[in-house]
Amino acid sequence: MEQVEVKTILWRPLVRRVSLVIFGLGAAACFFLGFVWLTYFYPWTPTENVFFGSEKIRLAGVLILPRGEGPYPAVVQVSGSGLVGKKSLSMRLHANVLARQGVAVLCYDKRGIGESEGKYKASDYKHRVADIHSAFNYLKTRDDIDSRSMGYLGHSEGALLMPEVALVRNDIKFAYLRVGPVLGYKHFTAFQKRQLMKAWGMPPHGIDEMIALMMDTSDYYIRSQGDPQYFEGPTRDALQFRLDEVFRKYEQYASRVFTRRKFSNGPYRDRFVRYIGHSNSYDPRVFLEQKLGIPMYYVYGEMDESIDTASSVAYLEGLRSRTDQDIEIEVYPGESHSLFHWTYLPFGGYPRGYCQRMAGWIQEQFVGVDEGPQVRSTSLPSPSTSER
């Protein structure tokens, strides 16, 4: 009994020290995360929940406003694909950074997400473009927003849709675009799937076969729009045969790439075919080549797993050379699609200097716009920014 008591006494100081270390690390982590939250994500400036109409439905948004009196310059922030809404931490970070520099930011829930009406799965790019127009139109109704000083802030899919929107509006003065898939839907979808199959260890010839089937399937739906005879014809049977073959040869991979094993063998349904066909044929280059006439700033991650950064940058540089458009390009070495990494938490989760450069460039675009409000510029030089 005495031996047990001695051992217990010897262990007590060690347990106490370990407990203090764990408590200290926990307290430090809480303090650090609290600092990051208060610095980048907490809404220190006024916010207002808003609603606006778009094609007979009501969309819900939040308007992050600067302090002081308006009217304020403003941007509409358009999120990437998926179930991303106005409460996204990424959207809130960008909005807070800009609001503290005197720029109002409107974020909104997509159709069928959050408080917005509509059906998310039933909406395509046409609906999303209409909703972006409605967001800008809403801002123009507010007395506290300077309608002469509005810009576009798009992320991924939001950047994809910018050229179509900006081409037909004269009230968008610039566009700041993060990881924008400028080469179109088919290109970035093929790139994403190819990267995934490489990571799974699939043989190269199998990857090529799967990608070729994906592209031919896209072309089939594009060609089938408004053409029931083609949709129900022999092309569908040939594609089904090829789909059966890839499932026979690569089932463990094919089941993760293709959502279904069978093509619809029913009659032509116009709404269904046009929904798929329009998305698959979407290509922002159709609009970019028409010369938008606004400054554009494209940001990419060098190691993006979803967007082909090298090909995107090459296209934008060629576009700038051919059309003399005002395009700046910045590539962050080693970064992925989100540009976010936990080691960057002291900077809000993004590479050091990203937030300052983003806010600084946007502020510069508002200076002297149509004799609108002057916004102080605090842009930082970036050695990795392409200004050729």
Describe the structure.
There is one protein chain. This protein has 388 residues and is an alpha/beta fold. The protein has 2 domains: 242 residues, Rossmann fold; 96 residues, no CATH class. It has 12 helices and 9 strands. A hairpin with a 2-residue loop joins strand 1 and strand 2. Helix 5 packs antiparallel against helix 6. The longest helix has 40 residues.
Task: Classify the beta-strand content into a percent band.
Answer: 15-25%
Tally of individual domains: 2
Q: Which second-level CATH architecture of the largest domain applies? A: 3-Layer(aba) Sandwich
Shape estimate: globular
Outline of this structure?
Helix content is 48%, strand content 15%. The protein is α/β, with parallel strands linked by helices.
Secondary-structure map:
Layout: H1 2-41, E1 47-54, E2 57-64, E3 72-78, H2 89-99, E4 104-108, H3 125-139, E5 145-155, H4 157-167, E6 172-178, H5 185-200, H6 204-224, H7 228-231, H8 234-257, H9 270-281, H10 285-288, E7 296-301, H11 309-323, E8 327-332, H12 354-366, E9 385-386
Parallel strand pairs: 3-4, 3-5, 5-6, 6-7, 7-8
Antiparallel strand pairs: 1-2, 2-4, 8-9
Features:
nine-stranded mixed beta sheet, alpha/beta, 2 domains, Rossmann fold, 388 residues
